[in-house]
Amino acid sequence: MSASDKNQPTQGSIFYDQGFRSIVYQILLAVGLGYVGWALFSNVIENLDRQGIATGWSFLWTSSGFDIGESVIEYDAGDTYGRALLVGFLNTVRVAFLGIIFATILGVFMGVARVSRNWLLSTISSWFVEIGRNVPVVLHVIFWGTVIHLLPQPREAMVPFEGAFIMNRGFVMPFPVYDDAYPWVGLGLIVGIAGVVFLNKWAQAKRERTGQYIHTLWPGLGIFFGCPLVVWLAFGAPLVWDVPALKGFNFQGGLQLSPEFIALLVGITVYTASFIAEIVRSGIQSVPSGQVEAAGAVGLRQGFIMRYVVIPQALRVIVPPTASQYLSLTKNSSLGVLIGYPDLVNIGNTTLNQTGQAVEAITIMMLVYLGISIVISLFMNFYNRIVAIKER
Amino acid sequence: MPNDTTSNIPTSGTKSGRTAPPPTERIPVLKWIRENLVSSPLNTVVTIICVFGLIYTVPDFISWSLLDAVFNASSHEDCRAAAGACWAVVADKHRPMFFGVYPYEEHWRLLLGLIIYCGAVGLTMLPKCWSYKFLVPLWLFTLFSTLTLMWGGVLGLAEVDTSQWGGLPLTMVLFSGTIVVGFPLAILLALGRRSDMPAVKAVCVIFIESLRGVPLITILFVAVNVFPLFLPQGLEFDKLLRVMVGMAIFFACYQAEVIRGGLQAISRGQYEAAEALGLGYWQTMIRIILPQALRICLPGIVNHVIAAFKNTSLVLIIGLFDMLTATTSVMQDPEWRRFTLEAYICVGFVYFCFCYALSKYSQQVERWLGEGKRF
Amino acid sequence: MNEQAQTPRPSSASDDTAIELIDVNKWYGDFQALVDINLSVKRGERVVVCGPSGSGKSTMIRCINRLEHHQRGKIIVDGTELTDNLKNIEAVRSEVGMVFQSFNLFPHMRIIDNLTLAPMLVRKMPKADAEELAMGYLERVQIPEQAYKYPGQLSGGQQQRVAIARSLCMQPRVMLFDEPTSALDPEMIKEVLDVMIELADEGMTMMVVTHEMGFAKTVADTMIFMDLGEIVEVATPDVFFTNPENERTQLFLKQILTH
């Protein structure tokens, strides 16, 4: 054995080298996926060709030929498929936005109720959560759709308050007629919000300087409601109600919410709210009792303990899963197709059936939802990075 | 023993066993009420509001659903006359609701299959049975026996095509298919996502994240409309199978994230010990890591299983006759149509029972984990 | 064992008494955790409470600042009786500092904010004064440089010293310690005990539940041994360690001192 042999590590066959193997596996994977992808793609082209179905995106600019029940923007049967899909998207956004707001309010309320000391309240809310969670969202939506169908006819509609009607054609209520003063009132609201923010900042600075604690709740509410109110009064307090009136078989005028919209909104709201309630409950219970004890031991009273110790820590646990639930709710709004609410998936489905261009239609739908989910993920990552509790 | 008189601080009795029973409130019920309902002014107000709310709604509900309800009726006329709920609609229509369009005389086969299935599920939930040796044969047996019962064509059983499968058994078939196909896929995806090979990791990440971002409906649309386009001419797959694969893939993407959390919780030392012993990658995973990881994330796994069960109701949109779709179509009957609400409540109740039982099980597993129970 | 006649101690209204427990009994459900506890701690006195686990020492100390409720008997801290009255509880808690076994620092706030939170909100101190106070105490516990870090970035011993500083910022008249070193690694116990010894030397009234007998011998004026919810023996350290009267005390000392 020569000296050089002793110092040289034995070279095995290259085929056993881990690094080499890993590269080979990955190349095989890439090639395999590439082949499968190409095979599928060529099959698709061939099949579409055979069935005489067009490919490409030109259908977006052809006239759709179908009507849409409700829309946020102007639309009629002569408009293009592209516009129809836009209408669907806006309808999805409309129901998802309201759904998120209501589900949050209801969910937070139920979650806090679950952990309250009051036995009645916590029992009622736990029943709410269990029934909400354990029934499929599809059934929630169909259930409320059925309930609305059982409501009386417009002529015998229920009247919860003056001018409002609940019936099987949906819900109508009086709504103010647009006046030129209203954008200014909106501006007043923005000023009010800014005012509240400044009030809180000022109160905090004052407390840090002098130790005095200033209650900002009532002044804050005053500013929030007062600013728009002042602007409105300055314009002469314009308020003309568009009151719904029964004409023939249905109501005209006022704010009209279709039964499909209401059923979908209530269904997905109740379903998502029950999940948010559980998240809120587990977030509150995740704060170790030692924290509350330590805060109490140092003399803080209940309100301060909640505000400075419990809620900041609970929010860190609550916000990420809640963001997931918002995404879930947005995806669940696609159930509009079940009850006839013209959301994106519903209109996409109609487009698909009429043009036969399934691949393009489904791709559009999937890309839109993927986009929404990426936006929500980005927000969540951003939030997590800001509030991450620093450790060594 | 001399008494302690040197210290000027009095001592309490030195004899042990001087405990006494706790001071009892005059009436225990009053004490409970005091603590739970009226312990503070806010609490009292809340109690009053709740009580008023209950008084306003509960008696009406009870009279509608129980007192004035019709439980058995020879015809829909009796139901129309009554003021309360018409549960008789379920009595009249429960066969098509729960069994779909399956041939009437063969329903016993479905029932038997359901019993075998539920038995297998029950056994799987017991920690005592958690070993490959027991579970794999059990589920193979369940799979074969239920499929044979449902499909027929052998052993003297009449053949029933899959297009006639419906109702609760179809829900079960979809559900089982989703889990059985989706779970191994989830494990593969989770392992792939944690792999050191960048290509494998990238493929898994893209797959998981894109499929998690889209609604299940769109995946079902793909399964029904687009998937046939992928196949060369002449090759066809049963619609039920395609839908099942689609749901399994969706389930696998969510489940993979849960399993990944469990894998991350296993300390590096476990991998190192296995490596030191000379075990290969798959041996390490199957025998050492996965058994531990799966136990840790079991509550999360069960939650997604519950979600998969609920998601079977989505096939309403693509025309497969699960329990919910069967009910919807059966309630088109013009004579009974006005009682659709009662039918939906019944179906909802069935879903509720299954899901509630599974979620209680999940809480029990969490409790076992918390207690450090060995299983 | 002779049964000692129970001599209920009259409530001494003297300024001298910091803490007084009279016939205190507490139950958890049916289980009696504290049995006829009678105790009086003078101002400036250092009391160390020891005993086997489950003996009720932590329960007793937690009753003193109302983290637990006693069902029978009286607890009087600094002349204020502890009842369900919220005002009384808050008054007591501002004067009684507590250090926990698991530190319980607020993880989402910096060290300096942990210390200044209560002085600002409860004693209504301006922020600048509160921070000055906090830095002073951080220097006392010898970690002023950690002021702007987060609790998760500190070691166990440092966290516990911060916890002590946090309690001191409210300038309490009595300090309670519930097994302050039990959750620490051995090499960090000394730094915490040193702080506690310094505190004792300055005349703070202290009540410490601990197993650290070395500390007890150095600092304690009075040793209390508890078992099964009762106070079994009370003595000065010399008597306690060399010639305990009660059999149970002897047994306990033998277990804890020889290993």
Describe this structure in words.
The complex is a heterotrimer of chains A (392), B (375) and C (259). Chain A is mainly alpha-helical and 392 residues long. A 3-stranded antiparallel sheet of chain A has the order 1-2-7. Chain A has helices spanning 3-7, 18-51, 81-114, 119-134, 137-149, 182-210, 217-234, 259-286, 289-297, 302-332, 336-339, 344-355, 358-387, and strands at residues 165-167, 170-173, 175-176, 241-242, 245-247, 250-252, 255-257. In chain A, strand 1 and strand 2 (170-173) form a beta hairpin. The longest helix of chain A is centred in the N-terminal third of the chain and has 34 residues, at 18-51. Chain A has 3 domains: 15-51; 81-176 and 242-387, MetI-like (MetI-like fold); 178-239. Chain B has 375 residues and is mainly alpha-helical. Chain B has helices spanning 28-36, 41-67, 76-81, 88-99, 107-125, 132-151, 167-193, 198-212, 216-230, 239-265, 268-277, 281-296, 298-311, 323-330, 340-371. The radius of gyration of chain B is 29 Å and the shape is globular. Chain B starts with 27 loop residues before the first helix and ends with a helix. The relative contact order of chain B is 0.09. Residues 1-15 of chain B have low confidence and may be disordered. In chain C, helix 3 crosses helix 4 (127-140) and helix 3 (111-121) packs parallel to helix 5 (156-168). Residues 1-13 of chain C have low confidence and may be disordered. In chain C, strands 6-7-8-3-9-10 form a 6-stranded mixed sheet, sandwiched between helices. Chain C has helices at residues 57-64, 86-95, 111-121, 127-140, 156-168, 186-201, 213-219, 237-242, 247-257; strands at residues 17-28, 31-42, 46-50, 72-77, 80-81, 96-99, 174-178, 205-209, 222-227, 230-235. Chains in contact: A-B, A-C, B-C. The interface between A and B is large, with 54 and 56 residues.
CATH superfamily of the largest domain in chain A: MetI-like
Number of distinct beta strands of chain A: 7
Which second-level CATH architecture of the largest domain in chain A applies? Orthogonal Bundle
H and E string of chain A: HHHHHEEEHHEEEEHHHHHH
Shape of chain A: globular
Task: Output the helix-strand order of chain C.
Answer: EEEHEEHEHHHEHEHEEHH
Average pLDDT over all residues of chain C? 88
